Automatic annotation (TrEMBL):
It comes from the Archaea. Its EC number is 1.1.1.34. GO terms for biological process: coenzyme A metabolic process; isoprenoid biosynthetic process; sterol biosynthetic process. Belongs to the HMG-CoA reductase family. GO terms for molecular function: hydroxymethylglutaryl-CoA reductase (NADPH) activity. PANTHER family: 3-HYDROXY-3-METHYLGLUTARYL-COENZYME A REDUCTASE (PTHR10572:SF24). Pathway: Metabolic intermediate biosynthesis; (R)-mevalonate biosynthesis; (R)-mevalonate from acetyl-CoA: step 3/3. It comes from Halorubrum coriense DSM 10284. Keywords: NADP, Oxidoreductase. It catalyses: (R)-mevalonate + 2 NADP(+) + CoA = (3S)-3-hydroxy-3-methylglutaryl-CoA + 2 NADPH + 2 H(+). This is 3-hydroxy-3-methylglutaryl coenzyme A reductase. It is an enzyme of class 1 (oxidoreductase). Coiled coil: none annotated.
Length: 407
């Protein structure tokens, strides 16, 4: 039987012979995607031809990355750098791929990279790693809650065995109980190697919850009790971390600050204190930084990360001070950067290309090292962005740069 055309499939949907979401069952994904564009364009009177220009295999992404596919959206990708990153597993000169539609962003980060490189590069380290999932259980009262907590502490090996039976890569690191009245939250934390690991942690935790219910009087209410905390601003992630906690720093010689950034170490340090620390505290912010979300979001889009997790990824603190020698020390600490180099959107061809620019595509050797290196690169990118914005404020060039590049 010959392959139906997009017009054939669209006609069948209009006639009620075929459901919109069943198009892939009757044709390959490219044809089904084209049929869906025809139907939506007809219903909305929109020109959807630009969405039909995409570089991925529609069969590969349908179901695993997206449903009811219309096509693809193109976001310009720029590059900042090179900047030397002294990382925990490897040191290298890296170019930083950034996907954004915000004019001046790549130029801003590139200028920061230039100043960092002139000072000898940046250092970055992952200080803690672990993806979390925190189910909530119902118990009869406080006494039963205390009994459940005691059972969990005595049976972590059994919970690890249950959880790890679902994955060949994940490893349960610990389980932390939290009690609120007759609610018990168990915050499971996993080493997920080079995967971001949210799906891995969820499936593994479901198996562990079965063991809890089989051996105690607790009843699982929800596999996620929001103490994880995924894709929401949360102090627990700022304190305990989630995904990878990563820190980057650099010392910029006074001459570089004055010649390249047109300001002084003292001005940058004062602006950081009054803006990023005092101003953020007064605002009740969780992150104490200038615009870390810009760097995180642009690198997330370029490398195929879950863009909603920019919420946690931008949970960062920037510090700046003048050294005893009169130079500028700057750092940025990202508490909960959730990234991976395998799975999810990382397997799409354009995102793979960006990971290859960074030298971190696929699984690392040892496992987890590629995702660590990606986290370090994002932290250095954020550091460069913070340095440049603080300097632009110090030299009062912020508005002129946006007027020139951002309009």
């Amino acid at each position: 039987m010959s392959q139906p055309t997009p017009a054939d499939l669209a006609t069948r949907v209009r006639d009620g012979d075929l459901r919109f979401h069943e198009l892939e069952d009757h044709a390959d994904a490219d044809v089904a995607t084209a049929a869906r564009r025809l139907l939506v364009a007809e219903a909305t009177d929109a020109d959807l031809d630009p969405l039909g220009e995409y570089a991925f295999d529609a069969d590969a992404v349908h179901g695993s990355n997206i449903e009811n596919t219309l096509g693809g959206v193109q976001v310009p990708v720029g590059v900042a750098g090179p900047v030397t990153v002294d990382g925990g597993d490897r040191s290298a000169e890296r170019y930083l791929p950034l996907a954004t539609t915000e004019g001046a962003l790549v130029a801003s980060i590139n200028r920061g990279c230039s100043a960092i490189e002139a000072g000898g590069g940046a250092t970055a380290r992952v200080t803690k790693s672990g993806m979390t999932r925190a189910p909530v259980f119902r118990v009869a009262g406080v006494a039963e809650a205390e009994a459940l907590v005691a059972w969990v502490r005595d049976n972590e090996p059994a919970l690890a065995e249950a959880a790890e039976s679902t994955t060949s890569h994940g490893e349960l690191l610990d389980v932390t109980p939290y009690v609120v009245g007759n609610n018990v939250f168990l915050r499971f934390r996993y080493d997920t190697k080079d995967a971001m690991g949210m799906n891995m942690a969820t499936i593994a935790t479901r198996e562990a919850c079965d063991a809890v219910e089989a051996e105690t009087d607790a009843s699982l209410v929800a596999l996620s009790g929001n103490l994880c905390s995924d894709k929401k601003p949360a102090a627990i992630n700022a304190v305990e971390g989630r995904g990878r906690s990563v820190v980057a720093d650099a010392t910029i010689p006074r001459a570089v600050v004055e010649d390249r950034l047109r300001t002084t170490p003292e001005a940058v340090a004062e602006i950081n204190t009054r803006k990023n620390l005092v101003g953020s505290a007064k605002a009740g912010a969780l992150g104490f930084n200038a615009h870390v979300a810009n760097a995180v979001a642009a690198m997330f889009l370029a490398t195929g990360q879950d863009e909603a997790q920019v919420v946690e990824g931008a949970n960062a603190i920037t510090t700046a001070e003048t050294t005893a020698d009169g130079d500028l020390y700057v750092s940025v600490s990202l508490a909960s950067l959730e990234v991976g180099t395998v799975g999810g959107g990382t397997k799409l061809p354009t995102q793979q290309a960006s990971l290859e620019i960074l030298g971190v595509a696929g699984g690392g050797d040892p496992p987890g090292s590629n995702a660590d290196a990606l986290a370090e690169s994002i932290a250095v990118c954020a550091l460069a962005g913070e340095l440049n914005l603080l300097a632009a404020l110090g030299s009062r060039h912020l508005s002129s740069a946006h007027a020139e590049l951002g309009r």
